Structure to design on (553 residues):
């Protein structure tokens, strides 16, 4: 990539200087969590050493500074996905965001309804809906996909109907890397008034996601996969829907008025943010957004596509390794799951670690999907803006070494 | 490039059992059977046991998974096959001792025989579960039938 300055970017990530088992770290586990630039790391220590204070409460200088920084971060998130600050709720992670939606919508669901999800959902976008269906008697329906993960839209038109209250789908699969046709699914479901929930854990960190253009009702994602800290996630919801939804947690900050007998709820987004929030990490998330914006989401996505295409081509030279998921670059992000025809992914991952290469092995929190490929687990390499072509070359060479080791 | 530690885990005997697992023929009428998996990594093990007229164990171990889980199952099968059923638990205890990095006497190591080749796993905490899987499954059989 000519205009993408990976070497310069890498200098911003202190962890990339680490050696693992004597080799330079090659971090290919970005779908699990991303590394953090120095600006994000410093933002956290800066908050604690310069203006640590509680938000929305005090009249003193520190509290005002903390509140301003905290709310500024919310505005940055809002702008990043083209929404409004009152539509952005801080949560702990994508899972919590999805659970808040599932619980919040539960009152409007009955046994007459159905909920549609795909077969490639992360457990966090499967189990909450499964539980909601068990509780309410609603039917859980699954979209079908082919072995590359391409959703069958003809079938989708058959199962999405006037009783479909919720359609919840991952924007990009954390196993297959495929980007799902959310626009088409919106089009199919809109006439039924179906609420569209998007699990953006793998999409928001890697390409521009515009909630107005998608016309989605909810979008859930985590900061830690997009250069931000762990322990903080985001729930976007359309204002009119959030207003109707009941909060899951009660306590400080989320109330408007409290008597000994009753309470009324605060305005959005505070209604959903009970208790002292994760101030430091929210602010650091804003700094992560600044970093991503400065590099440019389009540039990041282009770089990842370049690496992905390069890797897919290299894999065709490895006769015993097979990619699980699409082998073309169209509608695809930088997540490549693969398996060796004889070796278990754990063994592959263990030897790669000795070469300094970090990949994920296991079921990737998508057990039913992994099982549908008649495998017990898979290995996965996933890319981000700091990965390089040289790293991929070494990764591919190492895969051959792994094979030789077990021969 | 590959470290000694790794070679210790994937020891020669271990790799031999991984490539050529022993006692994999299914029993037609097992007295006991258990299937166990480790959902975290997807290792699967099935153990069948029949007792012969002398209360000796006839065992079959099959499954799929990583080298450590499968080799451990095979090593266990080889170890316990034709052992008196009442001696199985003491073997489970001994293996657990080995994996927990406790000090074993010469005599105990002798008792474990080839199974002690799995001691290299001790340096890889995430793989201990893989090595334990078949032994935990065996213990389940013993406990159920006590």
């Amino acid at each position: 990539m000519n205009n993408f300055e990976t070497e310069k970017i890498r200098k911003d990530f202190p962890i990339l200087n680490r050696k693992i088992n004597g080799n330079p770290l090659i971090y290919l586990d970005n779908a699990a969590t991303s590394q953090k630039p120095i600006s994000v790391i410093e933002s956290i220590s800066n908050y604690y050493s310069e203006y640590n204070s509680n938000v929305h409460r005090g009249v003193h200088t520190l509290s005002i500074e903390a509140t301003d920084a905290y709310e500024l971060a919310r505005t940055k998130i809002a702008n990043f996905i083209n929404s409004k600050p009152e539509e952005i709720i801080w949560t702990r992670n994508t899972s919590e965001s999805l659970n808040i939606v599932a619980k919040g919508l539960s009152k409007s669901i009955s046994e007459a309804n159905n909920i549609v999800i795909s077969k490639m959902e992360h457990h966090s976008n499967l189990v909450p809906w499964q539980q909601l269906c068990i509780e309410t008697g609603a039917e859980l329906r699954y979209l079908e996909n082919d072995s590359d993960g391409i959703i069958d839209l003809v079938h989708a038109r058959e199962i999405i109907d006037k009783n479909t209250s919720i359609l919840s789908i991952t924007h990009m699969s954390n196993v297959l890397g495929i980007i799902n046709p959310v626009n088409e699914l919106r089009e199919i479901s809109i006439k039924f008034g179906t609420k569209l929930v998007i699990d953006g854990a793998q999409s928001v960190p890697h390409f521009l996601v515009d909630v107005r253009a998608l016309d989605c009702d909810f979008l859930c994602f985590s900061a830690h996969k997009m250069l931000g800290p762990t322990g903080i996630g985001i729930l976007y919801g359309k204002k009119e829907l959030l207003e109707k939804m009941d909060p899951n947690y009660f306590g400080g900050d989320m109330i408007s008025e409290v008597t000994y007998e009753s309470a009324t709820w605060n305005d959005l987004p505070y209604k959903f943010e009970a208790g002292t929030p994760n101030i430091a990490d929210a602010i650091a998330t804003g700094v992560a957004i600044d970093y991503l914006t400065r590099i440019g989401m389009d540039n990041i996505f282009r770089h990842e596509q370049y690496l992905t295409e390069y890797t897919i081509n290299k894999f065709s030279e490895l006769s015993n390794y097979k990619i699980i998921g699409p082998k073309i670059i169209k509608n695809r992000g930088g997540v490549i799951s693969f398996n060796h025809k004889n070796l278990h992914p754990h063994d592959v991952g263990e030897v790669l670690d000795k070469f300094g290469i970090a990949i994920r092995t296991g079921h990737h929190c998508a057990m039913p999907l992994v099982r549908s490929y008649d495998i017990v687990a898979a290995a996965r390499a996933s890319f981000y803006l700091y990965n390089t072509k040289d790293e991929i070359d070494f990764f591919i060479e190492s895969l051959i070494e792994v094979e030789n080791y077990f021969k | 490039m590959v470290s000694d530690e790794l070679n210790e885990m994937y020891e020669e005997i271990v790799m031999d059992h991984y490539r050529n697992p022993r006692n994999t023929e299914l029993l037609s009428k097992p007295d006991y059977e258990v299937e166990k998996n480790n959902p975290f990594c997807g290792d699967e093990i099935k153990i069948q046991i029949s007792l012969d007229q002398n209360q000796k164990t006839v065992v079959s171990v099959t499954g799929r998974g990583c080298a450590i889980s499968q080799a451990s199952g095979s090593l266990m099968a080889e170890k316990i096959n034709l052992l008196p059923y009442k001696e199985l638990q003491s073997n489970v205890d001994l293996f657990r001792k080995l994996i927990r990095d406790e000090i074993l006497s010469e005599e105990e190591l002798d008792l474990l025989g080839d199974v002690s080749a799995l001691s290299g796993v001790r340096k890889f905490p995430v793989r201990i579960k893989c090595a334990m899987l078949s032994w935990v499954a065996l213990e389940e059989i013993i406990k159920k039938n006590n």
